[in-house]
């Protein structure tokens, strides 16, 4: 891998994310809204409205995630936020719901919920760099715990279905499985503070 710089996604870097996601907004016009919005709210929105939800988040004091750049070329993205910013991640029926006793409104409990890597850069270790950078970013902003709910296996190693990440990447980064409510989708956790 060449030299990659990973930055919080601010409004100034928004054009790079748009270039990375492409005109359809990555993952079938999602614009990383899947975990940010309630299903009915999300279903009622078109792609432009979903795009604006993420764009608005770049104007907030806390970035909605990190973007990886190879020079000026955007090559990867990870959504890393407090759990409260991704309410669908916390619903009772999801594999990613909080452990009993954990409060999803706790600002020290963070979620690494989505990834998007440029197709020609998949399989080159970029997800490892994004997980490391996201964990450091979360710690700098008061996280005590970072959680993820990745896939154990995808049909293809470079599958777009790995938008939640791969278990093997999180294991290598020191995350531990704390629950598995859906086969192949464990809730993983790293205590950092």
From TrEMBL:
Pfam families: Acetyltransf_1 (PF00583). InterPro entries: Acyl_CoA_acyltransferase, GNAT_dom. Keywords: Transferase. Signal peptide: none annotated. Residues 4-193 form the N-acetyltransferase domain. One of its GO terms (molecular function) is acyltransferase activity, transferring groups other than amino-acyl groups. This is Acetyltransferase (GNAT) family protein.
């Amino acid at each position: 891998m060449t030299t990659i710089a990973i930055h919080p996604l601010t409004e100034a870097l928004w054009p790079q994310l748009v270039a990375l996601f492409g005109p359809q907004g990555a993952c079938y016009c999602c614009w990383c809204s899947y975990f940010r919005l309630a299903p009915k709210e999300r279903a009622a929105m078109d792609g432009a409205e979903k795009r604006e939800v993420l764009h608005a988040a770049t104007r907030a004091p806390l970035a909605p995630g990190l973007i990886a750049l190879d020079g000026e070329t955007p090559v990867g993205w990870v959504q890393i936020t407090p759990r409260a910013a991704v309410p669908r991640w916390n619903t009772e029926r999801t594999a990613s719901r909080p452990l009993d006793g954990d409060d999803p409104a706790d600002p020290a409990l963070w979620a690494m919920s989505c990834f998007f890597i440029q197709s020609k850069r998949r399989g080159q270790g970029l997800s490892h760099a994004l997980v490391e950078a996201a964990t450091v970013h979360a710690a700098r902003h008061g996280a005590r715990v970072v959680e993820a709910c990745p896939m154990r296996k995808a049909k293809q190693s470079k599958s777009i279905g790995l938008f939640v990440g791969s278990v093997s990447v999180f294991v290598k980064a020191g995350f531990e499985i704390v629950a598995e409510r859906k086969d192949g989708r464990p809730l993983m956790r790293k205590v950092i503070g």
